[in-house]
């Protein structure tokens, strides 16, 4: 006879909290606070200080590092960045990602995510695996929303190899006001899907290259959440609205 006992009810609660500021950004928050304090003492009041305090809050928000819950399952690729999906198209691979040590010869589907200065700028690995390449390239700082930014802007290519040997590549691209790309990983490091792997300061873009057999699971104009939004899946059709 089946048990009539009711399943236990969770009694704990989850409370919202302000996201922490990433250690990389704390020095900038302190600098902004120091400038605000200096303005206050020089001006002798709050009138000129409020704008600088506003900038301080924005700097803290820019470097915010929220907790993310990454979906688990085989054949999933999660978004490496928060932002707007601006391009989904078949493209030739950048030279730095092509070849037997990279992603092969391509072409592959590229999903581009544009991060405004109001988005979270902590980037996360889209899959679990081993970092095989981290290639930094100096360049220009044109608008990251333009297609040519993939070839002309300062950028950093990262290749991750999954346990089954499949290689995934993504590129951090500096934007119009971005001036530094940081990587928290190096070749040989083991990473898990959704792990923090770097950031780009002050507006930028991330391109993700889907391996053969994987289909995009986002559409143009959709907003992605780093470490949570599934942007690619193997053996599943692309949703309506995806431009190939």
From TrEMBL:
Q: Where exactly is the site Cleavage (non-hydrolytic)?
A: 203-204
In Swiss-Prot or TrEMBL terms, this protein is called Phosphatidylserine decarboxylase proenzyme
Which cofactor does this sequence's record say it needs? pyruvate
* Segments crossing the lipid bilayer: 28-48
Q: Which PANTHER family match?
A: ARCHAETIDYLSERINE DECARBOXYLASE PROENZYME-RELATED
Q: Which gene name belongs to this protein?
A: psd
Compartments where found: Cell membrane
Q: How is it modified after translation?
A: Is synthesized initially as an inactive proenzyme. Formation of the active enzyme involves a self-maturation process in which the active site pyruvoyl group is generated from an internal serine residue via an autocatalytic post-translational modification. Two non-identical subunits are generated from the proenzyme in this reaction, and the pyruvate is formed at the N-terminus of the alpha chain, which is derived from the carboxyl end of the proenzyme.
Name its species: Sphingomonas yantingensis
């Amino acid at each position: 006879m089946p048990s009539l006992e009711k399943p236990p009810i969770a009694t704990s609660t989850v409370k919202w909290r302000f996201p922490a500021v990433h250690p990389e950004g704390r020095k900038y928050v302190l600098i902004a606070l120091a400038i605000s304090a200096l303005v206050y003492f020089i001006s002798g009041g709050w009138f000129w200080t409020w704008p600088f305090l506003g900038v301080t809050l924005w700097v803290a928000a820019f470097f915010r590092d929220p907790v993310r819950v990454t979906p688990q399952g085989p054949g999933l690729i999660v978004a490496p960045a928060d932002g707007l999906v601006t391009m989904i198209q078949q493209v030739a691979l950048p030279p730095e990602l092509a070849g037997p040590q990279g992603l092969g010869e391509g072409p592959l589907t590229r999903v581009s995510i544009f991060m405004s200065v109001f988005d979270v700028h902590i980037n996360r690995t889209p899959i679990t695996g081993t970092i095989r390449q981290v290639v930094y390239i100096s360049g220009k700082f044109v608008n990251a929303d333009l297609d040519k930014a993939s070839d002309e802007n300062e950028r950093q290519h990262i290749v991750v190899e999954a346990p089954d040997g499949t290689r995934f590549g993504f590129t951090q691209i500096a934007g119009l006001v971005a001036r530094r790309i940081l990587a928290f990983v190096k070749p040989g490091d083991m990473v898990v899907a959704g792990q923090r792997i770097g950031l780009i300061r002050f507006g930028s873009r991330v391109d993700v290259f889907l391996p053969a057999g994987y289909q995009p699971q986002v559409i143009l104009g959709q907003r992605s959440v780093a470490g949570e939004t599934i942007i690619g899946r193997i053996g599943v059709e692309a949703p309506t609205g995806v431009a190939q």
